[in-house]
Task: structure prediction
Amino acid sequence: MTAPLLATRPTIKILLYTDDPNTVTEGNDFLGLGSMIERLKAHAPVFADLSIKWVSRNSDQDHHADNKLDFLLRKEIEDTGEPFDEIWFFGLHQANTDRFSLGVFRGGPESELNPDEVEALEKWMRVDGGTGGGVLMTGDHNNPVPPNWLPNKNGRCTDTVQKPQLFGLGRALGRCVPRAGELRKWDGPPSSRSADSLNTVACFQTDRVPQQLSHEKVNADGEPDPNGQPHPLFFYRTGRFIDIFPDHRHEGALATPNLSNTAVWPVGPTGQPKPCVVACGTNKRTSEKICLVTAYDGDRAGVGRIVADSSWHHYLNLNLKGFPHPAPPTSDSDKLGQFYGNLAVWLAPLPKRRQMAQAMFWQLANFTLLLEQPEAPLQAGETAYSVLGRSTSPCEIHELLRASGQMQLVEHGSSNNAMENFSNTDKESLGLVIHAYQEALIRAEQETGTMKPFEVENVSQELPRASMAVAGATAAAGINASNGSASVGEKNAVATSIVENKEWTIDIKRDAATGEPEFAATLVFRLDMENEVVTGQVWNGIDRQLLSTVKGTRKPLPGLNESFVALEFEWGDVIMTLSGTMTESDTVSFNGRYRATALTTLHAQDKSGTDSPYPMAPGDGDTGSGTGQQT
Result:
């Protein structure tokens, strides 16, 4: 089995599914989703793109149930070649009714899912033979049963309730979705009546005063643990969590399912995953704690993940209008946006999260700060996590590491802002994975002949210095890291270009330790790059003193307008190795790292002394960055 080292950036495809095209729209309507969509896009994952599609089951007043789910799932693959990854349900209709209406009692004869749709969803939610699709299940409080209710007699969706008084908003779409439908209460109270409503409004539901959340702590498998931490859905920044939600006067209710039917709630090799409440609010009417969010991690049982929410009001324009967007960091509005972004990552199918992890490892390995091969994996892991933290949400980091094989729970912090992000073991594991990617890159760069796209073959399952977690990560990436090397296979050739007699200006800066003086210099290169061979000369950029000749290599990176460039030249008493990426866009730029290594003693004596013509150079063992462009 092989996996590309240069991982393709995947796309997470989300279907926003409703049944009322006039109310829960994708725009700025009173109960629309436009504001949520804007925030979701603003907090999109770093290692995947987002594709968001809104569809109503009933396309308009004259067309009832013309967008059934089995049709939509099939049509998406036919149209795009790829399935949806997630479905977010925002239904209003309560049940089947004897006539189609989008009026006061919304519904129709086919408002509820039919057996074909349930079967299609069941297959889509499986990893084996399906997509492993994730589901967000929402709804709202329960209202009186429509007077023209038609009891459902379709297979597993058959109604069993006798003479019901209240049906939940969103019940028609949600009740029969495998597993997800069992996580909300669709019959009986709570309703919008003052006697049994669940009210979380802090002031007004349209203002900028949110309700406060309390987190139920979980372990690495997302199950209750008093010594754990808040669920990754609520990771915000290091040591901080999303602790607010939009409020609403009439929340719906979550339910605890019966897990005895293992055909519905499967058991995996390590046990049966259990849905768990992960966030709660406070009922302002009674001061009692109420459950707002339940999460089910189906990874361990080969099925998709699920999040159930007490109310779609946590996503609607009405309840978000008091929170300005775009929003500054640490604001309540920004926290809400990050929650939507976390949802998109957490609900993504396991195979897609593994694709994202491969893209993450590749970018880390190729990032300028990591182009220099560190001797200690811990150092690489620390640097990698620092790089990730500048652009990537803690939830995305955590979920991609776990998807790739990092089975330990990555400590994100605690409620008292303790900064416990990574144990040294976790950092070393991450460093070993990155080291394996870098070895494969260097191996490909050193090969003779025409540079071709390469794949790294997984030929061993053993990692002498890494935990089993790292073994999972390298297996996901297709890397053989058993002896610090990587096997490289070849496929279709990539054409290489000829760049002749080009001048480059590159600024270098030393990695200075605390208390050491800074060192920076400007170098001017004149380089001939013919196919993969680089030759030329280099001068000190201040006084144009010739330093030495230059030799090196240039290897195109498949799928990108980038090449990996490695240069070697002498500067006074040291040999400089400068390597990095050359990017061709409107300008041709270089970003890389250097290492200085002392020449032999005899050679050094020939070039040393008070009359040395060579300007000050980095010392033996110095490292640093190099950036510049073709001039």
About this structure: Confidence is low (pLDDT under 50) at residues 1-5, 407-423, 448-499, 601-612.
